[in-house]
Write a structure and sequence with these properties.
With about 475 residues, this protein is mostly beta strands. The chain has 1 helix and 39 strands. The chain has a 4-stranded antiparallel beta sheet with strand order 3-30-29-28, with helices on one face. It has a 4-stranded antiparallel beta sheet with strand order 4-5-6-7, with no helix packed on it. The radius of gyration is 27 Å and the shape is elongated.
């Protein structure tokens, strides 16, 4: 919300003009409705999804549906079995195809937007076959490309569950595929080059745009595919050996994320048609190594894995804050993750509020997890300039050496409560002032206000002639992190 407040008065020497630009930036992490099964609505939570009964305690995956309500992956029951878990804390084994042997492994890699359709592979460790599962028809194999070995794995599915992508083997070699019930499985080819190997890792919401990695003359390269233009390489990050892979795509296909090779090492990237491929950096500490696995519906939030002093660690990235440790954010939100290591964040919900991945629980077991980042209070802001005093004539040197004013802010909390810090920044001098203590904002309270007092001693520069003071006002969360 932007509000411009202006004071001006004529003097016999010049016009004194003080203009304050008040810009409110809501910075709490994400707005949504938390699944009510976890207690208070819109409160952050973190939870391990458990595992299937039987066998050792282990669960892998952590791939979330678009609505943030279903997590899929695989666990040990009598053998490795795909599962679906929902926010009512129920985990369900999805079974196997009938031809799978006793030692065969089945895994789930993706779910439709509402979680009702799951895709993955059966017999993943030996001649795998891609499957599609729903509660009515159970698990069904979708075959493979003609030629080559009996081999197919499904890695992603469109929002409505009608389009599946992955890789198979054809007469040409290992090949990315797209599948639907009408046309069956179709190969997407590969980038031009002497070798032939391609994989489709992600698909847009409507199933028309596919991303993955192919092999060209320069080496392994991230690609984007559509039915009109076919497969196009996205290049690589500058520096390092030529090697890149696209892992996921935004709903409309315009934002692509994955990893490439830059001079420091393996690096997560974001790509769009205007800016091309940009590196996202890495967490501080450890070996330089990061991968972007998931992206929100609008492309504004990205999740993946980086390296820190603790080793592999899940991250979340946005344009304002860059790459940050997900565990640090959850801890700042008041959640107790004692004993947990969050290794990988694989997917993020469409609205960017719920994340799933894999880690180690306090008992030392590998366990898939889900994290909800909570809701931001809705805040509106009004501002006023009060008690403005200034000398009517500048001194002989032409400077206004004496002036003072107050900036008063009144907050209206639509939903809350919240503790916030206020930061006021002068665009003229670059100076910033923080509220000394957090301001407690309560819904419906008449006391949601703050006043900041300024005089000439607060400014590093002197002013003469027209005084133009522009200020931005931002609201920060309790850990003093501006988030989205």
């Amino acid at each position: 919300m932007g509000t411009v407040l202006t004071f001006s008065k004529k003097t016999r020497h010049s016009e004194i003009h003080i203009s304050f630009l008040i810009f409110l930036s809501l910075t709490f992490l994400l707005v949504s409705h938390c699944p009510l099964a976890f207690g208070a609505e819109d409160q952050p939570f973190f939870k391990g999804v458990g595992d299937l009964p039987g066998g050792t305690f282990e669960s892998y995956g952590g791939y979330i549906s678009g609505d943030g309500m279903t997590v899929v992956g695989w666990s040990y029951s009598t053998r490795i079995e795909p599962f679906s878990w929902n926010t009512f804390d129920a985990i369900q084994g999805l079974g196997w195809l009938t031809h799978g042997g006793v030692g065969s492994q089945a895994r789930a890699y993706a779910a439709s937007a509402d979680g009702s359709i799951v895709v993955g592979c059966d017999s993943c460790n030996f001649l795998p076959e891609a499957f599609i599962w729903d509660s009515i028809n159970g698990m069904r194999g979708i075959g493979d490309l003609p030629g080559g070995n009996d081999y197919s794995i499904a890695f992603d599915v469109s929002s409505d569950g009608s389009v599946v992508v992955g890789r198979s083997q054809s007469t040409a070699g290992t090949e990315a595929f797209i599948w639907d019930a009408i046309n069956g499985m179709q190969g997407l080819g590969d980038l031009s080059g002497s070798s032939f190997y391609s994989t489709a890792w992600g698909v847009s919401a409507d199933g028309t745009i596919v991303v993955g990695q192919g092999t060209g003359d320069s080496g392994t390269q991230a690609f984007v595919w559509d039915g009109t233009n076919g497969m196009d390489g996205l290049g690589d990050l500058p520096g390092g050996s030529f090697n890149s892979s696209a892992q996921a795509v935004s709903a409309d296909g315009s934002i692509i994320v994955g990893w490439g090779r830059s001079e420091p090492g393996k690096e997560a990237f974001v790509w769009d048609s205007v800016n091309g491929m940009r590196g996202l950096g890495d967490l501080s500490g450890g070996v330089f190594d990061s991968v972007a696995y998931g992206v929100s519906r609008d492309g504004s939030r990205i999740v993946g894995t980086g390296k820190s002093d603790s080793g592999s660690e899940a991250f979340i990235w946005d344009e304002v804050n860059g790459m940050r440790s997900l565990k640090d954010i959850l801890t700042d939100l008041g959640l107790d993750l004692t004993g947990w290591s969050l290794w990988d964040a694989y997917r993020i919900s469409d609205d960017g509020k719920t994340i799933a991945g894999r880690g180690q629980n306090p008992d030392g077991n590998s366990e898939a997890w889900i994290a909800y980042l909570g809701s931001a209070p809705e805040i509106s802001l009004s501002a006023a300039i009060n008690n403005l005093n200034y000398e009517t004539d500048p001194d002989a040197d032409g400077y206004y050496d004496t002036f003072s004013f107050d900036i008063s802010l009144d907050f209206n909390i639509v939903s809350g409560p919240a503790n916030v810090f206020v930061q006021i920044t002068s665009t003229a001098t670059g100076q910033s002032w923080w509220s000394a203590d957090p301001i407690n904002l309560s819904s419906g309270s008449a006391a949601n206000s703050a006043t900041f007092n300024f005089d000439q001693t607060d400014f590093q520069d002197r002013f003469s002639g027209n005084i133009g003071l522009n200020f931005s006002v931002k609201i920060w969360d309790q850990s003093k992190k501006q988030i989205f």
